[in-house]
Structure formats: structure tokens, C-alpha cells
TrEMBL record:
Coiled coil spans: none
Keywords: Signal
InterPro entries recorded: 6-blade_b-propeller_TolB-like (IPR011042)
Signal peptide: 1-17
Protein name according to UniProt: Tol-Pal system protein TolB
PANTHER family: PROTEIN TOLB, PROTEIN TOLB HOMOLOG
Source organism (scientific name): Campylobacter vulpis
Length: 402
């Protein structure tokens, strides 16, 4: 029923916006200094300024550098770039120098001017790699966002991590819970209604076409995809009872993994061999995270911290989750833990920090941060112990995937 899907949806309701603004916490680490030199000859002053700001932003978010003014005498690196525009086509040359010696010299081409943030992201990502610094492979990856645009209507939007670039992919009706279908980010799953029945679709970005995968009464949501991309963890409620299912795309076999009389949702594969799943359940009387072997019906409590843990994401043997703090009204923080040890680490502080998602390399986490009446997309650089915020202003976000 539509009611069940909308109740599930309400857990992840947050606010959307645009212009990137950085806020860094946990400062104090000594980083190599870098100078940025813009050698572009552009008549488009807005593009010139925006691209420069994006490069500066990316270098800071990488957490590998301290960006200093061009006149600084103590810099370790120089980041020189030249951007040219020919119609809708952009050409970019980036040179990285250290002590006067050229470390890299790379050329890039982009056929759509509006996608310039990804050009900057890729250039910085590659430069970090050439210098042998901590990688930021996630930086030019795309983020999927389900955004409400009117009553009972929502869009699937594709954006860069700063939310500067935004493109509506799916529109019309209620379109929810996008989830990337492969590592190449050429396809994604999402939930929509087909003749008033919740249906899981797969959208192919190369053909701009959607195909039906599964339908179910109550709800159907894809929460995770295995590394090969041939198996999906799905939350379904054919009898108005949300449970976790495993769907094999090759054999079309649907197997039920949980059978609890309450709520089991938001399952994720965990472990190097993806032989286990973690999921959110209310079987303790409040939302918490449980772990279960594939092929088993026995679930064990995975998190023994907090009494409202309603969202989880995984990377190898690690999981990250949002937890409501006791005796702090409305405060949710993000925690990182390993299933192989007692390791647990708090990653956020104060306010509502919700819906965490691991990056592809596990080194960063994206989440939604509520700031009074506004919200922001947060990026945690785990090893650097830094957090960056990109404010949101327009509409409401139900869910995200990175």
C-alpha cells in the first residue's frame, strides 16, 4: 500500500539546495602547501571564476593540501591550469610542479559546459594520484538524489558532490530511493508506482530508458547491490510486512532473508566476500542494526550503542550508521564500526546527522546534516578527520546514493 511506502519514506526526509560552501572542522594537521595558478584565457568571466573556486574547493576537500596565495614563498606544489572554451566544448590542461620540476602534465576534454564541476573533480583526483597522496577516487563520482518537487511528486536527480551540477533524470509521479546498479554508474534502480503498485525500475543512462524489475504490494525498495551487480537486496512488503529479500537478476529468483513480525529494512552486504548482510530492524522495540549470514534465518544484534539506529551503510567489514543520542533531544550522530573488532568511532557532533553513505573507496562518507531550518550535504574525510558542508535550500530530499 502507498501508506507503507510513505511511512518508510518519512524516515529519510531532508532538505535540498545548491551553492557549495565549505566548513571544515578538526583542523590542525600540517599539510603540504599548494599554490593554484589560473592561466586560462576565457571571455566567460562567470565560468572562469566558478571553475577556479571549484578547483580550490576540491583541493581543500581532498584534505591533502593547504591552499596558499600565489605569492607564498614556502609552497611545496604549484597547480597550474588553463581552461579554454569552444562552443559547448571545454579543454583543460593541468600541470603539477614541485620545486620547479614538472610532476604531471595532463589534458582533458568535456563536451558539455554545464558539467564543468566533474572536469575540475577529475583533474584534482588525478593530480592527487600522480603525487602519490591519499586518493580521492570518489571525487568525480555522481550522487543520486530523490527530491520532492510538489505534493506526491518527486524527481530523481543526478549531481556532483558539491551539488553545483544538477540534472533531472526521472520526473513525473512519485520516484524514490535511487540506488546505483553498477560501479560504472551507468544504471540505477529506483521505486515508482505502476498502476498504483510499488515497482522497482532500472534506469539505463546510456539509453535513457527504464525497465521494470520487480513489483510488490506495500513497498519495494532496492537497498544494496553486490559487487558483480547481479544480486540486489530488496525491502518488500507483499503482505504489509516489510522484510528483506535477495533478488538474483540472472535466475530471476527471489528469496526471503528475514521473517520477523515487525519491520526489517535497509539491508546492505557486508564483508569481503559479501556473505553477510546488515539491516535495520525494530525487533528490540526500537530501530537497531542486525547482522545475518546469507542462507541463515538467524539474526544477531550488530550494534550495542544507541536506541534509535535507523540508517546504515557498509564498506568491506565496516559499517557506518546514524544514532540518536540519549538525553539530547533531536540529536543524531554518525558512528563508524568494524564487525571484526570492538572498534567504534564517532564521526559527527551536534545536530541531526542522518542517512550516511560510504564512498566507493571507503575513505569518505556523505550524509545529510540538519542546520536549524536548513540542511546541508556533509562529506566526512575519515582518515583526515575533517568534515565539509554544502548547504541545501530548495525542496526536500528523501534519499541519496553515492
Amino acid at each position: 500500500m502507498r501508506k507503507i511506502l510513505l511511512v518508510f519514506l518519512a524516515i529519510f526526509s531532508v532538505v535540498w539546495a545548491e551553492d557549495p560552501v565549505i566548513d571544515v572542522v578538526n583542523k590542525g594537521v600540517v599539510l603540504p602547501k599548494i599554490i593554484v595558478k589560473d592561466n586560462s584565457n576565457l571571455s566567460d568571466a562567470n565560468l572562469k571564476r566558478s571553475f577556479y573556486n571549484m578547483i580550490i574547493n576540491d583541493l581543500k576537500v581532498s584534505s591533502n593540501f593547504e591552499v596558499v596565495d600565489e605569492g607564498s614563498e614556502n609552497s611545496n606544489y604549484t597547480f597550474e591550469y588553463a581552461l579554454t572554451k569552444n562552443g559547448e566544448k571545454l579543454n583543460l590542461n593541468i600541470k603539477i610542479k614541485a620545486g620547479g620540476a614538472e610532476k604531471s602534465n595532463q589534458d582533458y576534454t568535456l563536451n558539455k559546459v554545464e558539467q564543468y564541476p566533474f572536469l575540475a573533480h577529475k583533474g584534482v583526483k588525478d593530480s592527487v594520484q600522480f603525487l602519490g597522496l591519499a586518493p580521492v577516487e570518489w571525487m568525480d563520482h555522481k550522487i543520486l538524489i530523490a527530491r520532492t518537487n510538489s505534493s506526491k511528486r518527486s524527481q530523481i536527480i543526478m549531481a556532483d558532490y558539491t551539488l553545483t551540477y544538477q540534472r533531472v533524470i526521472v520526473d513525473g509521479g512519485l520516484n524514490l530511493f535511487p540506488k546505483w546498479a553498477n560501479e560504472e554508474q551507468t544504471m540505477f534502480y529506483y521505486t515508482a508506482y505502476d498502476h498504483d503498485k510499488p515497482t522497482l525500475f532500472r534506469f539505463d543512462l546510456t539509453s535513457n530508458k527504464a525497465s521494470k524489475i520487480l513489483s510488490s504490494g506495500g513497498m519495494v525498495v532496492a537497498s544494496d547491490v553486490n559487487k558483480k551487480g547481479d544480486k540486489i537486496l530488496v525491502t518488500m512488503a507483499p503482505q504489509d510486512q516489510p522484510d528483506v529479500y535477495l533478488y538474483d537478476l540472472n535466475s530471476k529468483n527471489l528469496s526471503k532473508l528475514t521473517n520477523y513480525s515487525g519491520i526489517d529494512v535497509n539491508a546492505n552486504f557486508i564483508g569481503e566476500d559479501e556473505s553477510k548482510v546488515v539491516f535495520v530492524s525494530d525487533r528490540l522495540g526500537y530501530p537497531n542494526i542486525f547482522i545475518q549470514n546469507l542462507g541463515s534465518t538467524s539474526a544477531e544484534q550488530a550494534v550495542f550503542h544507541g536506541r534509535n539506529n535507523s540508517a546504515v551503510s557498509t564498506y568491506k567489514d565496516f559499517l557506518v550508521y546514524s544514532s540518536r543520542e540519549p538525553k539530547q533531544a533531536g540529536v543524531f550522530n554518525i558512528y563508524l564500526m568494524s564487525i571484526k573488532s570492538d572498534y567504534i568511532r564517532q564521526l559527527s557532533a551536534n545536530g541531526k546527522n542522518l542517512f550516511p553513505r560510504f564512498s566507493s573507496d571507503g575513505g569518505s562518507i556523505v550524509f545529510i546534516k540538519h542546520l536549524g531550518n536548513q540542511s546541508a550535504l556533509g562529506v566526512i574525510r575519515v582518515n583526515a578527520n575533517k568534515t565539509f558542508y554544502f548547504p541545501l535550500k530548495v525542496g526536500k530530499i528523501q534519499s541519496i546514493d553515492w
